[in-house]
Amino acid sequence: MLDAIRSLSAYQKLLADLRAGAAPAGLGLLRAARPALAACLYQDLGWPLLVLVDRPDHALTLVDELAFWSPGAPRLIFPEPNPLFYELAAWGSATRRDRILALTALSAYHLPGAEKPEHPPIVVTSARALMARTLPRRDFIKVTRALKLGEVIQPEALLKHWVDLGYQPAEIVVEPGQFSRRGGILDIWPPAEFHPARMEFFGDEVDTLRRFDPATQRTIEPLTRLLVTPAREVLPGRAAELGYAPQEVTEFILPLVHPAPASLLDYLPQPALVLVDDTELLQATVNDIEEQAVKLRQDSLHEGTLPKDFPAPYLSWSELADSLGGRLVLELGHSTAEEPSALATAFQPGPRFGGKMREVMELLGDLAEAREKVTIISRQVSRLKELWVERYAGQTEEGDRPGPELIEGTL
After folding, report:
1. Which pLDDT score, from 0 to 100, does residue 394 have?
2. Per-residue pLDDT tens over the stretch 10-49
3. 7 φ, ψ to 5°?
4. d(CA 343, CA 23)
5. Distance separating alpha carbons of residues 105 and 121, to the nearest angstrom
6. Is the N or C terminus of the chain more exposed, i.e. has fewer CB atoms within 10 Å?
7. 130-139, 159-168, 244-253, 390-399: lowest mean pLDDT where?
8. Which candidate, 134, 94, 184, places its Cα nearest to that of 314?
9. 3 state DSSP class of 315
10. How far is CA 96 from CA 5, 212, 235, 241, 327, in A?
């Protein structure tokens, strides 16, 4: 399927335009064609990809769909905060980790001396997740530290630095964002790592550095370098400098601790491609969320639970649009397209059968007789094979009617 898309002259022109730094107006693609095109662009450009959709359920669905079209790509979800804007509530640990994971993947392109990812990431996010202010990129990079085998550093200074980055002390490290100390042995689990790391000191020198399995405590592989990023988007060390007690440090105070408004867009490297599922829908969703936030702010001010000068914990559509203005942005949908693009006309919606398998088999037979190439992706491949053989026994691939290509999977 991807090769078929690549063979289209309209696709090749789009690819050439993007490489030249120019994006056309909205493509007007069928929704079903969008993940396949995104996978093509990702593979052919070799750039980080940021995909913007309106709702979080759409973002999760898209991440799953991209697993089929581009299975080897690092697919990251940048989730929205659990509480509403202006709501004094804690973020979930999974939300914290997933957001830091995406920020780390993109910040690798900006960290001095850092290794660039072997495969650029695909980050998918929704309107409210994109709106939510985050740790400014400059601050993220400034406090991120690469620990190296043989490095000389005082363990006590390292522990204090980890606390300032939002890591929590624990007896045993069992989840990301924790660290522990046992004599001259320090364990830490950076959120972007799939396993924790252990370092043993000889005096103040990092004598050994290795990744280990937290369940068995056995070494997975030795390391020569470990990147330790912030564990949260609000830095406790910065908050402490402003007079906040440890128990007061939540993401609620992020706009107070980090007054420079920042979003995920600030972490994108050059070059990178931003794909917008539907610009008009994204803008409408952002405006609706802001309207709800303004009402909640007014209610909180009336109740006296929010200071009058409390800064907005989100970016408005105009602020996001300004950030997008400096990026290479391509809309997959219709809202900025005067008419369907030449690429969009290459895709047609398939017929709907409502579970009527007799009609499905009749169509497949007609297409096979006309020598049309047919590919079916289904979780019921074995049953479809049975139905095909029952209906067209003796007329299969060896006979007059070549059967359809059946692929086990889901779109």
Report:
1. 60
2. 999 999 999 999 998 899 999 999 999 999 999 999 999 9
3. -75, -10
4. 14
5. 7
6. C
7. 390-399
8. 134
9. coil
10. 37, 23, 13, 22, 26
Question: Which amino acid, 340?
Answer: P
- Cα–Cα dist 257/71, whole Å: 39
- Cα-atom radius of gyration of the chain, to the nearest Å? 26
The amino acid present at 66, given as its one-letter code, is L
Which amino acid appears at position 302 of this protein?
Answer: H
**Helix spans in 224-278 (H):** 236-241, 254-257
> Which residue stretches of 304-356 are H helix?
317-325
CA angle at 180 for the pair 177 and 186, rounded to the nearest 5°: 110
Question: HSE (CB half, 13 Å, CA atoms) of 396?
Answer: 10
Kindly report whether the global pTM for this prediction surpasses the value 0.85: yes
Structure tokens at 28: 């007007």
pLDDT tens-digit profile of 148-182?
A: 999 999 999 999 999 999 999 999 999 999 999 99
Taking alpha carbons only, the member of 121, 129, 48, 141 closest to residue 85 is 129
Chain-centre distance of CA 224, in angstroms? 28
Q: What sign has the CA pseudo-torsion 178, 181, 185, 186?
A: positive
Closest CA to 324 of 284, 366, 274: 274
* 132 DSSP 8-state letter: B
Cβ proximity of 135 and 233 under 8 Å: yes
